[in-house]
Design brief:
Endonuclease, Chain A, seven-stranded mixed beta sheet
């Protein structure tokens, strides 16, 4: 009997070794960032059995069989729809600035989406202003309202938005709402979905995973886009979820969330509507290709702006937003100013920021002093010393959790949207950002960034070097796993 157990033990060990070897080969054979592969190998080897389970749950970009098949079928009609954008009056490449043209060419070749001119943009820089503006526009809607958010958290002004949507549906407006399953869990457990559906609103839970299917689709893949389109004429996008900060994570100890949304009209609205249509069809199989932009664009000093809308995520070209971000930084001649709540840069991004500073570019990074993610906060700190030594200025915002995601290059053009500067946003989640080639809008965003800097503490390189040794050790530990955060 004892020999039987010995044989059984050896068989189990050999079987486990075969599984580890097989998963190792699978990890190595995937063409991805080397740091990501090394981080996964560490987890697999350090955590017996659990590391393998974690890899199958979170290690591969698996959209799910049904969604993947649906996305494949959608490629041709949506590619054709995107191609027609180049024939629209708003496609005026001759109006683009020197920096915007390479970005537009990259996006047009990889995504099929050109930059479009003739847009009107305004910054909504406070939660009350954002939500009140949404309510006012929904009250004027006559045809359709399309919502897409990562988080909808009931309470405060968010409830007033819900009531306004219900009233719009009752008067015959078509209302479609797409919300991430995990991010909006509190909403789906509330009474609001039932009330909305009773009023005729279509609500879809995006990327839902049941316990029996966790190995068939990546568990932490998230729909992180924030898009509102009203009557195919007005759109909103930016960093803010559908939440009232006075009622959202009030016990997290990080202060109220600070966000920005952009309200826009013009040809770029159709592109945001097209991205929503893509996401809706991936989840439901229902197709509603929005109308293409119409109306003549008369070049003038007032409307020569170009807005390049860039979606990313499964089904889109790999790391397209990452490429655009790097291209923008490498083109910078004077300054780069970044705001992000989660700063865990790739090696390429880190080198680009250091290189920009070392060639005399003024580089500023604004992050929240306190973060709602402990792991991300420690991982972020692990990059500070190297950046500070290269001359990068790092500002820690004291006025709450700075959630705005923006990049300004040379005070001439900017990137603004839903993308955090971490591996999750740049490689994994469904995201959207806009490159705005409009000095006037960029100046408004720059003023806002300067207000963030005024409310921040700038890190001193010498003082930072004197932080406790234990902190440095923890930072180094999370640095090793930063490619997975």
């Amino acid at each position: 009997m004892e020999q039987f157990y010995q044989v059984l033990a050896w068989v189990a060990v050999f079987a486990y070794w075969l599984i580890v070897a097989g998963v190792t080969i699978r990890v190595v054979s995937k063409r991805r960032v080397v740091g990501v592969s090394l981080a996964w190998l560490m987890i697999i080897y350090i955590i017996p059995i659990g590391g393998i389970v974690f890899y199958f749950l979170f290690g591969e970009l698996t959209l799910g069989k049904k969604r993947a098949e649906r996305a494949k079928e959608m490629l041709a009609p949506f590619a054709d729809w995107f191609r027609h954008l180049s024939d629209c009056p708003g496609h005026q490449p001759q109006l683009m600035s020197r920096n915007a043209r390479p970005i537009s060419e990259l996006c047009e070749k990889r995504l099929g989406i050109p930059g479009l001119s003739g847009n009107s943009l305004s910054i909504q820089d406070s939660p009350a202003k954002i939500l009140r503006s949404l309510i006012d526009d929904i009250e004027q809607a006559t045809e359709s309202v399309h919502f897409e958010f990562y988080i909808w958290h009931p309470g405060g002004l968010a409830d007033e938005v819900a009531i306004t949507l219900i009233n719009a549906a009752k008067r015959g407006v078509s209302v479609k709402i797409l919300l991430d399953s995990a991010g909006s869990m509190r909403f789906f457990r509330s009474h609001w979905p039932k009330l909305m559906r009773h009023a005729g609103i279509e609500i879809i839970e995006a990327l839902a995973v049941t316990p029996l299917r966790v190995f068939l689709r990546r568990l932490d893949l998230r729909q992180h886009r924030k898009i509102v389109v009203i009557d195919s004429k007005i759109a909103y996008t930016g960093s803010m979820n559908l939440v009232d900060p006075e009622h959202f994570k009030v016990d997290a100890g990080v202060g109220q969330w600070v966000d920005v949304m952009v309200r826009l009209t013009g040809p770029a609205v159709s592109v945001l509507n097209g991205i929503q249509a893509w996401d809706w069809e991936v989840e439901t199989g229902e197709r509603f290709l929005p109308p293409l932009p119409t109306g003549e664009i008369k070049p003038s000093a007032e409307n020569t702006d170009t807005v390049q809308v860039i979606p990313s995520g499964p089904g889109m070209p790999d790391e397209i937003i990452h490429q655009v971000l790097l291209l923008s930084i490498y083109q910078a001649q004077e300054s780069v100013v970044i705001t992000t709540p989660y700063f865990v840069p790739s090696e390429h991004l880190q080198h680009a920021l250091k290189g920009a500073s070392q060639r005399g570019i003024s580089v500023h990074i604004i992050v929240p002093d306190k973060n709602d993610s402990v792991m991300v906060e420690w991982a972020s700190r692990s990059f500070f010393s190297e950046l500070l030594s290269a001359g990068v200025k790092i500002h820690r915002f004291q006025g709450g959790l700075l959630h705005t995601k923006s990049v300004i290059i040379d005070d001439s053009h900017c990137l603004i949207g839903t993308v955090n500067l971490d591996m999750r946003s740049l490689w994994l989640n469904f995201e959207v950002t806009m490159v705005v080639d409009d000095p006037e809008f960029t100046q408004q965003l720059s003023w806002l960034q300067q207000e963030y800097i005024k409310g921040s503490t700038c890190l001193d390189e010498k003082e930072w070097a004197q932080r406790p040794a234990l902190n440095k050790l923890i930072e180094q530990l999370f640095y090793m796993f930063s490619p997975l955060l």
